[in-house]
Automatic annotation (TrEMBL):
Top-level lineage group: Bacteria
Gene behind the chain: tpiA
Keywords for the protein's UniProt record, in alphabetical order: Cytoplasm, Gluconeogenesis, Glycolysis, Isomerase
Native species: Alicyclobacillus vulcanalis
Subcellular compartments: Cytoplasm
Name of protein: Triosephosphate isomerase
GO molecular function terms attached to this record: triose-phosphate isomerase activity
Length: 256
């Protein structure tokens, strides 16, 4: 089954509502440059979701950056999956390295989030990646496949098939350094092999895998060209509408 390419922005803790509105307006003016063979999404701060839902071009879907894996309750400051789903959120990140490192999220907690996202009809984007010392130690595959298997644990074949994994080497995030596309491709192959063994060949072939870490308009094509990479999860370069559109155009050229 052919996998639809996906360009996903992760705004992290950037943009006020006014700034999000300006972004959506600017993107709307260039929406003819968004190719219908590609999916687009923005994972925005919660306060921006409303204005984006109203103003983003129809091709661009809503994403959230986090969720708490309970239906409701006394969890001050958290947000429930049903609240995001009600809002029209399609994608939810789980296990971003910033949350693993700064907020101490474990693979088990991330797995609870993934299950809650799926149970509420949304698509989990499970973020995985090795840090620089793990890279130096040559254990990237073990680390990444371990995170994938634990993050997706308990999902059915079909649920895995429609999930998304974002491979984001921690050392490449916000650093201006990227993985070599062929190295990211090898990691993506290892992820598919592990998924095929644990679930099925069909699930492994359908699962979408994104690369993330210092993706920019001038390098996004080199990742999307790799046969096991289906798009990109982009932080800094997704904040500017011109650069978001430039990445969309670079992906379109790969498909042409
Ligand atoms: O963490 C990332 C996306 O989730 C990557 O961030 P940068 O694109 O800013 O390196």
């Amino acid at each position: 089954m052919a996998r639809t390419p996906l360009l996903m922005g992760n705004w992290k803790m950037y943009k006020t509502v006014a700034e999000a509105r300006a972004f959506a307006e600017a993107l709307g003016q260039q929406s003819q440059k968004l190719d219908s063979r590609v999916e687009y999404a923005i994972c925005a701060p919660y306060t921006c979701l409303h204005v984006l839902r109203v103003m983003l071009p129809a091709q661009v879907r809503l994403g959230a950056q986090n969720v708490f894996p309970e239906k409701e309750g006394a969890y001050t400051g958290e947000i429930a999956p049903g609240m995001l789903a009600e809002f029209g959120t399609k994608y939810v990140l789980a296990g971003h390295s910033e949350r693993r490192m700064l907020f101490g999220e474990s693979d088990q907690f991330i797995n609870q989030k993934v299950k809650a996202i799926v149970a509420n009809g949304m698509t989990p984007v499970l973020c995985v990646g090795e840090n620089s010392s793990q890279k130096e130690d040559g254990v990237t595959r073990e680390v990444v496949t371990g995170q994938v298997l634990q993050g997706l644990d308990g999902l059915s074949d079909d649920e895995v098939a429609s999930a998304i994994v974002a491979y984001e080497p921690v050392w490449a995030i916000g650093s201006g350094k990227t993985a070599m596309p062929e190295d990211a491709e090898e990691v993506a192959q290892a992820i598919r092999a592990a998924v095929a063994e644990t679930w099925s060949a069909d699930a492994a072939a359908s699962l979408r895998i994104l690369y993330g870490g210092s993706v920019k308009p001038d390098n996004v094509a080199s990742f999307v060209r790799e046969s096991d990479l289906d798009g990109a999860l982009v932080g800094g370069a997704s904040l500017d509408p011109g650069s978001f559109v430039a990445m969309a155009e670079a992906i379109r050229e790969v498909l042409a």
